[in-house]
Design a protein that fits this description.
about 280 residues; mainly alpha; 14 helices
Length: about 280
C-alpha cells in the first residue's frame, strides 16, 4: 500500500512538473503539426521536433509575463515561475536556438517562419506591447501563429509550393486554434478580468461564448465536408479534424459544471493531441 501511494505521489509530481514547464501544450501543438504534415504529405520527424521546440519556448516565455493572470487562475504556476525565472529563460533560449538550427536542415523559408513564430510570442506577451489584452487581436494572433507552425513550417521545410489545399487547411486550423484559445479562456475569466485582459468570455459571458463555440464547430465541420468533397483537402481530414471538434463540443458542455471534469483547458489542449494520433492512424 505504501509503495502504491509512493508511486502515485511520484507520478503526480512528474505530471505537475511537466505541466509547469509547459511540456503538454508543446506536445499537443507538435501533434497537430504532425497531423497537418501528414495530410499535406510533407511529414518528417524533424519538423515535428522543430514545432515542439519553438512552441516550448513560446509557451514558457508567455508564462514569465503571465504572472498577473496566473496569480488568480493558477497560483502554483505563478510561484513556480517566480522561483525559477532564470531557468525558464534558459529553456526559452535553448529551445529557440535548437529550433532554428534544426530548421536550417529544411527549405530556406523554414528558419524565417520559426523566428517569426517566436517574435509573435514576444509581441503577444511582452508588457510594452501586450496584444494579449486586446480582443479579438489576441485570439487571431495566437490562431495564426499556431497555424503557421502546423502548416507553414512543414510546407517550408519540404520546400513545397503553397497550393489551394495548403491555404484551406491553414484556414481550417486557424478556426480550430481560435476555438481552443477561447475554450481555455473560460476557466481563466476571473484572472483575465483582474488583469484587464479581454477575451470572448470576458466580453460576452460564458453562456454566449458556449453558443458561439457550438455554432462555429457546426459551421466549420460542414465547411470541412464541403471542401473535402471538392477535393481541396484529403477526405481523411474530415476524420482528423472531426475528432477534435467532437472533443471541443464535449469540453464546452462541461464548462457549466463546478468544477468541470479535468478542466476545460485539458479538453481544449487534448483535442490537438487526438488530431495527431488520429492522423497517424487514418492517413
Amino acid at each position: 500500500m505504501l509503495v502504491k501511494d509512493g508511486v502515485t505521489e511520484l507520478l503526480a509530481d512528474v505530471f505537475t512538473a511537466l505541466a509547469h514547464w509547459r511540456i503538454f501544450p508543446a506536445v499537443y501543438g507538435a501533434a497537430m503539426t504532425a497531423a497537418a504534415a501528414l495530410l499535406l504529405s510533407v511529414y518528417t520527424t524533424t519538423v515535428v521536433v522543430v514545432a515542439f521546440l519553438i512552441l516550448l519556448a513560446v509557451y514558457n516565455l508567455n508564462n514569465v509575463f503571465d504572472t498577473d493572470e496566473d496569480e488568480t487562475n493558477n497560483p502554483e504556476q505563478t510561484e513556480f515561475v517566480r522561483q525559477r525565472r532564470r531557468w525558464v529563460y534558459a529553456v526559452v533560449a535553448i529551445s529557440t536556438v535548437a529550433a532554428v538550427l534544426l530548421s536550417l536542415r529544411g527549405g530556406s523559408w523554414t528558419p524565417i517562419l520559426v523566428v517569426s513564430v517566436f517574435v509573435s510570442g514576444v509581441v503577444y506577451s511582452v508588457e510594452s506591447v501586450r496584444l494579449k489584452q486586446v480582443f479579438p487581436i489576441n485570439t487571431i494572433l495566437v490562431a495564426v501563429t499556431l497555424s503557421t507552425v502546423a502548416v507553414g513550417v512543414p510546407v517550408a521545410f519540404a520546400e513545397g509550393v503553397p497550393t489551394p489545399s495548403v491555404f484551406v487547411l491553414f484556414g481550417l486550423l486557424c478556426v480550430r486554434f481560435a476555438v481552443t484559445v477561447e475554450l481555455c479562456n473560460i476557466p481563466d475569466i476571473a484572472g483575465d478580468r483582474r488583469a484587464g485582459v479581454t477575451t470572448l468570455p470576458v466580453v460576452f459571458g460564458v453562456q454566449t461564448t458556449k453558443r458561439l463555440i457550438y455554432a462555429v464547430e457546426v459551421g466549420t465541420f460542414v465547411s470541412l465536408v464541403f471542401v473535402a468533397r471538392a477535393g481541396l483537402v484529403r477526405t481523411e481530414a474530415v476524420v482528423v479534424l472531426g475528432v477534435p471538434a467532437v472533443c471541443s463540443v464535449v469540453a464546452t458542455h462541461v464548462t457549466d459544471r463546478d468544477p468541470p471534469p479535468l478542466g476545460p483547458g485539458v479538453y481544449g489542449d487534448a483535442q490537438l493531441l487526438l488530431a495527431g494520433c488520429t492522423a497517424y492512424v487514418v492517413v
